[in-house]
Amino acid sequence: MAVLELNKDNFDETIQNNDIVVLDFWAPWCGPCKQFAPTYEEISNKFDGDVVFAKINTEDEQELGGHFQIRSIPTLMIFREQVSIFSQPGAMAGADLEAIVNKAKELDMEEVRKEMAKQQEENS
Question: Is 30 part of the annotated catalytic residue set?
Answer without folding.
Answer: yes
